[in-house]
Amino acid sequence: MLMKKLLLAVVPFMLAGCSYYNQFVERMQTNKLEYQCDEKPLTVNLNNTRQQVSFIYDNKLLNLTQGISASGTRYTDGIYVFWSKGNEATVYKRDRIVLNNCQLQTPKR
User: Residues in domain C-type lysozyme inhibitor (predicted)?
Assistant: First the structure.
């Protein structure tokens, strides 16, 4: 009886630990990319595990999922598209360029 109560008390902590571990691993697999676009700077969080990028544009947090691309890498949510190739990127909203000529910045050491 005591063992069952102890097990019932410990299991939620173990599950919570798994959740924190998964969040930690997820953060470790996310790269922060800094771009300088013609219009303004852009910070993009790239999560290769989930095949997603996220960034703030027009005061909204956008989460885009990787889609099909003939060249480069394309992420979209159906409205916005983040397309990158090499060190360059472009952001579209409904097929209209909203951030152009985005150049990946190298980290300063």
Answer: 35-96
Instruction: Provide the CATH number for the domain formed by 30-104 in this structure.
Output: 2.40.128.200
Split at pLDDT 50, 70, 90, the class of 90 is very high
Between CA 4 and CA 6 the distance in angstroms is 5
What are the tokens at 52? 């997603």
- DSSP for 59-85 reads TEEEEEEEE--SSSEEEESSSEEEEEE
Where do the domains of the chain lie? 30-104
- Per residue in 58-69, pLDDT (tens digit) is 999 999 999 999
**Taking the CB of residue 108, how many other CB atoms lie within 10 A of it?**
4
Inter-residue contact 45 to 56 (CB < 8 Å):
no
Nearest to 43 by CA among 102, 109, 108: 102
CA dist., res. 109 & res. 66, Å (int) = 31
